[in-house]
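S., here's the first fold you wanted:
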Amino acid sequence: MIEKITDLNLLRFIVNNAACAIILIDKNENVIMTNLEYEKLTGYTDRYLTGMTVGDMIEKKIIHDSVSRKVMRQKQTVVLEQLSAGSSGSEYLVMVKGIPYWGQSKEIEYVICCLFDISDKRRIIEDLTASNLKYSMELLQLKKDAAANAGIVYRSPLMQTIIDKAEIIAKTDSTALILGESGTGKSMIARFLHDNSQRADNTFLTINCGAVPESLIESELFGYEKGAFTGAQPSGKQGLVELADNGTLFLDEIGDMPYDLQVKLLRLLQEKEFFRIGGTRPLKVNTRIIAATNQNLKEQIEKKRFREDLYYRLNVLNLQIPPLRERAEDIPILAETFRLKFNERYQLQKVLSHELINHLSQLQLRGNVRELENLIERLVLFSTEKVLTVNHLPGILEPEDPAPLSCTMDVEHSTYQQLRDHFERTLLTEAKIRYQTTAEIGRQLKVDQSTISRKLKKYKID
């Protein structure tokens, strides 16, 4: 058991070695203690201040406002900016965080005030002109985010609303459904929900329901017992649901999940239990499910491709991610983020011109953030000049209407089977480039996903 610290010398040693300025006030507004950082910041020694009251400090103009009084009145932590005067008479701006210490009587016994000098930062900001202030601050934040690979980058009020809502959803343990077009960043939002939840220290796993063949997705999700089917591992296998116990499982492209398998997922959501393939006893798990799709699930319900009961079970909390064309103000900062990323990856020093950024902001990027990222990568990699301009776009931008498939072949000396195989291979190769998953290819070509998977394997199309 940890004993309480009763050695005042030890306590003072700890306080004096803190990285910020500290002043301790009791419930009667008496100054009990300050530390060395406080003396460095204000010029006032602990010996001079100890025994003074908050009223004395205000009267002597050492402080102009009392954070401790606000803490006592509001009975919670208070943070504010405060103009203070040093012992030399010069004024400086500090951010003060007042933290209440509750005694055994359930009343506030002390207020610990931590001070951070922000006067230098304020002077720098005030010296910047209004025109370049916003850009300079964003660029500093952008470099920080890019270096840390923060992921979600935005400046639009629309995305700020989404992030604010996501922060609330992250604190819950409910199932969440993320909706939005392809390339809008649904998987990044899912990761954001996990990283800001109480499960952040546990496993986060992802499965793309449209990329895994129907014959494999059930075993990938729920695992199987030994001897469940021919070719099964002798010891059986844990599925992702089991591996993500106490963590989060992200089901991307949930709209492509096979209809028959949706019943098993529904049981998992309702009962927090499932059966492995070939299993006879239910397994309990504490796995949070986050799902995402670019499809209209209500339309899928009408077409009998998605279960209505599963939809309402998934749609406990939802986030609708707006397409990039509805938040064009995010494009400049996203473009800069990707430029920094690919400059570092390829050891280059390319720069985006203002003209190019303005032009990109006006593009209707149907592939959203993913398309913009791919575009910036091609610009950085294939343009020979250091400064990238609009003149570099021809040959980099994908055409609005792709050229028709070329199926040129020697018809006279080819069999019908050879001609058919050639056409199929050409068609599927082009489709694989355009679409992300086999399910999406199947929808576009009106062919079952299993057929697409088999054909891709047959023609060795990766």
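And the second, which I think is the more interesting of the pair:
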Amino acid sequence: MIGTYEIVSIVLSILVLVGIKLMSSPKTAVQGNRIGAMAMLAAVIVVLAYNGIIDVPLLWLAIFVGGVIGYIMAMRVKMIQMPQMVALLNGLGGGASALVALVEIFERYKQMTLFGRLTGQLALAVGAVTFSGSLIAAAKLDRRISQRPIILKNHGLISNAVLLIIILLIITASVANISGIGFIAIITAFLALAYGVLFAIRVGGADMPITISLLNSFSGLAGAICGFTIEDPLLVAVGAIVGASGLILTQIMCGAMNRSLVDILSGSQLNPGINKKEATPQEKVIDVEKTPVTAKKSPAKSPAEILKTAKKVVIVPGYGMAIAQAQSQVKALYDTLESQGKEVKFAIHPVACRMPGHMNVLLAEVDVPYDKLCEMDAINPEFSETDVAIVVGACDVINPAANTAEGTPIYGMPVLKVEEAKNVIVCNLDTKPGYSGVKNSLYELPNVHLLLGNAADTVKELVESIKQ
């Protein structure tokens, strides 16, 4: 028979789902966040009350200290640092699950059922992998360590060997009623931490959106498994929601980057050839050699003149815009073009920034209308009818070589078809390849105008030249 606690757990889980649903729209996202936060706070209080420890002062002190730290971090973090913040929070969630599982193993191992022992060991392993992997991801995103893949000698063999040992230890600790289980659990935790590091360091910046989504799913999975260990249905339900949503997001990112989830999990085909010399497309979308050089060096019209006569403009922001903090200048460009009666839209690639939806948030921060943000599949058919495409700090996501350069990291990755626009203005720092290491063949096309330099400066200059 379902008790009061189970009914409350169901209600709180539904509130979490409602919050997630509301986050899908910018108009209701803030409300969704508040509902989700209040539901989680209520869940904490309900769990404390159900276990008869709501009056323990140390718990409330810990909640207060944690809340203050979280508030300070949230207020101080810049919007561009949000991906590493998310990665860090994923890691803390996984670490918490691992600690709870470790305590349960030490205190209740003899009383546990086979299922309890198995889930306890799994929660410990998955939580530890999430913790260490997320810390590496956060460090890479924050440029604390190299964003390039770090490949050890026999990396795959070492990773697989560590994973196999972890599995054997989990099975042994679950099936055999042996002494020294604490020592085995510590070894399992240590190896899981090592596996998380081995998994994350071989991932480069280009694959980091997938990694963050996957680790988000792992943090929820660790929580759900831990819920089975301590026999708490509320933790199982909320953990499952987080795990499922993270997995769905991971699948979306895999589709956006044309990568298999199996390849991500096994570490194969992650940034292939990234440590080699610059990859060069085997083919070109347009035969650049037949294009007169004078067409590039001496364009008939300047970018400002082209924009003045344009009727339809598509702005394509990328990670370089975020690095340059040029979103305010991009908004000024949008306002200027709109005031001149032009149709202006934004083309958003799923991995334009370092995590799904990050670019949308950056633009919303400067009050760019959300209905002007178009997803890749919706905007790609419109490029052929676009007078001017303005690229601001984007490289790999607009590289036509993704369609032709077999054997390169971006081959087969869906990209924004900016080359189909009548004119393209590129406001990038330079013409060097992006994270993939693949030369961007877009820069060589005759209808492309390069305004190289810091995007905050070049876009500002472009706005001023349009107004003159």
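Why I say that: Residues 269-298 have pLDDT under 50 and may be disordered. The two ends are 75 Å apart (CA to CA).

Talk tomorrow,
H.
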